[in-house]
Design goal:
322 residues; alpha/beta; 12 helices; elongated; disordered C terminus
């Protein structure tokens, strides 16, 4: 058992792995804590796993797991937490946008009794459009989700061992970690830090991927879209009933007018759009049920470090045994 486990999902981060590793060692060495670094290669195609293999050979504190393909960051976080043996676990990215020098401060707050310590970034340096969309997204999430999401509170956080065990006990395949971290509760502390640019390479989170991630979050922790579809259908039914009564009253009082094709086409197109949107929402939930029912593993491990292999337990099996 070690004091701290640093969990680091990696996807095509060969340019920055060495710099990140040195920065973590420099940040933790003065603390006197025992620690390990649990790297998870998410099917990289740029030699990331080669660098992790070399680090594991030269530094006994390094452990790694490599996926057979890209399974996504959520799977990487899950595998890292399953690997971790520390009393506390710190989740962070390898691109140095999560400053390693903040980890000792997290540990200090954890020692004060907090099970979750969140480093909450500001949005300095972001584009105006992205900043506006991000703020609007979090306002929407706070309004509709069953858990609370805080703007700037991402994956960069410390979790106590019991918080990690709570996360690992959740079996769902469609994982939205930000929501899961909030859902498990426990005493939480946070502090702000200034947004940092990537040390190298390009962001893997484009606009389309961010949009899909936002939709996943919206659907993972509430059924309000289905409730909204019911409300919309009832509202359209009442509107159609009022409109029909108005037509009947107008015909009785003023005679029968020639029906307007524009009104008819508008009504058909509008109702058709609402029906397609409602079917899409229902389809998303049904698709998630279908995905969960298959019971497939969250990821497939291609390679892992000799220390983990010697124990005869891959991260996937370790999670199931827990």
């Amino acid at each position: 058992m070690v004091d701290i486990s640093i969990v680091v999902p990696c996807f095509n981060e060969s340019e920055v792995i060495d710099s990140f590793h040195r920065a973590v060692l420099d940040a933790l060495r003065p603390t006197g804590l025992s620690f390990e670094l649990c790297y998870v290669d998410d099917g990289s195609a740029d030699g990331t796993v080669d660098r992790l293999r070399e680090l594991a050979q030269t530094d006994p504190r390094v452990r790694y797991t490599s996926f057979s393909r890209n399974f996504g960051k959520e799977a990487g976080l899950l595998a890292g937490m399953r690997m971790a043996r520390g009393d506390a676990v710190v989740l962070m990215d390898a691109d140095l946008q999560h400053p390693p020098e903040l980890v000792p401060r997290m540990v200090q707050l954890h020692r004060q009794g907090f099970d979750q310590v969140i480093a909450q970034r500001d949005r300095s340096g972001e584009g105006t459009v992205r900043k506006a969309f991000s703020r609007a997204y979090y306002r929407l999430m706070r309004r509709f989700m069953e858990v609370e999401l805080v703007d700037g509170a991402g994956d960069f956080r410390l979790l106590s061992r019991r918080a990690v065990n709570a996360i690992l006990s959740l079996p769902e395949s469609n994982r939205f970690s930000k929501g899961l971290f909030s859902w498990i509760g426990f005493d939480t502390a946070s502090f702000p830090y200034k947004n940092v640019e990537r040390a190298a390479g390009a962001s893997k989170w484009g606009g389309r991927r961010l949009l899909n991630y936002g939709i996943d979050g919206l659907l993972s922790f509430n059924s309000r879209p289905l409730r909204m579809a019911i409300h919309t259908g009832l509202w359209l039914f009442v509107s159609a009933l009022v409109y029909a009564l108005w037509i009947i009253a107008n015909a009785l009082l003023n005679g029968v007018d020639t029906p307007g094709y524009a009104t008819l086409i508008t009504a058909i197109v509008g109702l058709g759009g609402v029906q397609l949107a409602t079917l899409g929402v229902i389809g998303e939930y049904v698709g998630r049920i279908y995905h969960e029912s298959k019971g497939r593993p969250h990821y497939v491990v291609r390679e892992t470090d000799p220390d983990t292999a010697a124990r005869g337990r891959t991260p996937e099996r370790a999670g199931r045994a827990g």
